[in-house]
Amino acid sequence: MQKYSYFLGCLTPNRYPGVEAATIKVMKMFDIDLIEMKGASCCPAPGVFGSFDLDTWMSIAARNISIAEESGTDITMTCNGCYGSLQETHHLLEDPIKKEKVNKILGKIGREYKGTSKVRHVIELLVEDVGLDRIREAVVQPLTGIRVAIHYGCHFLKPSKVRHQGSAETPHVLDDIMEAIGAESIDYKDRNMCCGAGGGVRAAFKDVALSFTKEKIDNILEAKGDCITTPCAFCLFQFDVGQNEINEQLKTTYQVPVLYFTQLMGLAFGLSPEELGILHHKTPVQPLLDKLLTM
Q: Is pLDDT at 39 greater than 70 in this prediction?
């Protein structure tokens, strides 16, 4: 069985434990064991933090990676922000001068960043280690007839020279997974537009963040999407909680189910909604489950 250190980040354990449960269960089906990272902290958040204090940002991220290095495993995660911070730090610390500076800071707490653990999003494990053929073979309840609106999120794709997820303008890796489990990945206007929450916008200008979210949901509804899926726990939060916030502010009735992509995979693999934690989402998932029952 392959082992990976699972970097939970902040949002998943505090807001969406179902994402953690679904991901662990799905990966175990393919003989991949996600192990706990004891002592891990915030990634820290990409973008804003690193823009103000790059050395501290890299040092905190390097400390987290060093925990995985202690177990001799690569590190994986289910949040694009965490992926952005850890993967980009791993890239930046290929520079020996930066690495020396960071290790001087880490040395004060008895730690050292070696650069021996690769940083890989859980999507990469599923596509590269497992493969689409094995994913298709694991399906017991194909999501036939389900029109899925994929939201990749910013930090998964960009900067493309560092992330290496193919074209940042026409990504398809998650589309391939959705099609492997029988769902239809739909095209919709401004598909690669931000969910609205990133870069501290949600914290500082929530109305602006929600205007982005509303526009994306309107575009998805126009394309007749049944649900939204994403590889980012923070984007999941923005679409899930954001719909309720929009409804409260504007007296609208948005209710587009939002699921993490491993939760959708879990449904196709025969796992129950309770096992996947999707019944605890703020935006009801029941309409999607009802449609599945009629297929």
A: yes
